[in-house]
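BUG: 3D viewer hangs when loading the predicted structure for this chain

Environment: internal workstation, default settings.
Expected: structure renders.
Actual: progress bar stalls at 90%.

Input used:
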Amino acid sequence: MPIYSKHNNILVNLLAVAFLCFSCSKTEESFETKTDSFSVDFVKSLGGTNNESAQAITKTIDGGYAILGYTQSLDGDISNKTNKSFDYWILKYDQYNNLEWQKTYGGTGDDRGNDIIQTRDGGYAVIGFSQSNDGDITNSYGAHDFWVLKLTVSGNKLWQKNYGFLGADIGNSIIETHDGSFLLTGVLDVSASNGEGNSKDSSSKFSKIQHAGGDYWAIKINVLGEIEWRNYYGGSFTDTPYDVIQTEDNGFLLVGSSDSNDVDITGNIGTYDFWVVKISETGALLWEKSFGGSQTDEARAIVKSEDGNYIIVGNTRSNDNHVSINKGAADLWAIKISPTGNLIWEQSFGGTSFDVAQSISKTEDNNYIISGNSRSMDGDVTNNYGQNDAWLLKIDTNGKLLWQKTIGGTEIDFAYDAVELNNKSIIVVGDTSSSNFDLSTNHGFSDLLIYKLN
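Structure tokens produced before the viewer hung:
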């Protein structure tokens, strides 16, 4: 898994446990907490003899869901693929978890999907990165480009666009904006672009010469993929955005991590911080804030809370400054901030090993589900089968842990995204290398992982 991928890298009382997980089988495992009860409906591993992963999921207007990731295989569950390079892989399921269609997109290079949304017209927009200049890709600017696809409701390609320069430019997230356009965010290799990447009428506070390495890069495009504006933000070290949300004033909040302490970054606390950037609807930098401690802290996802504030999740290795407690090597860390960037609360979740968050989304009851992975088997984590397990947590608006659940085997298992469907069930996606305990089958190296909680 590349380090630049978007999705790299709770206290529960068990009343009854009985599990048997297969690609298409159901388990009868039930859990009850102070506020919730749920059961594991199914666990599926999909793939071929090489590597597959799911990086993002979106619920669809028909009650089902669509999953985006990537595949390297030519066999097994993958169809209509012609070479062993990585391609985008999209799978569309109905509300009854039946596969309606699957498609791959890419060329002969390294093409991996990172984020998917369903658009207002019922189709889909997806983003990731591409190293190809053939197949579905008609252009290439450098080592890697942002690669965006606009698809119909059945997954047919309407248009595709590359954005980038000579370096490794990685698209991590996409949203549909209030005006019906799209905002893309990811990493721009400013050193390789020689400072290019800003629109003429929007720029960072300092000259391009002071930027270096990777910066946050935001690109506003219209419904046909044409650039409206673009701008980068960061300093002279490594600044990586993973998620973005539009605010009530039509601006945007970008979240990720920063290792810089200069140029656009004014309040660096440690090696890497949660770095939150507020920009206007035209890309002007309005304010930026760092959160964390003296060690490594990386934000991965943001969601608007029901009270008009924002919850950001990621991981922390710190136990000072903004981080009040560290339970182990790395904790899942959640913070709530106001629309002006003031810290409202912060909470650490995990055990004595490594625990991280990859996504957060709101549920119908105004609580929040967080996906990630855990190596712990103590503290907030009640079970671990070995190495990393996929981990799902539910918290309330004040950061109180409502429940948590791990799924996995003795190898490496990750959860990268999760969503609550219209019927209140939760679908979690990621990847797995296990073939025991919750995962009885492994098709190759890593498989795409899907599991459902009712």
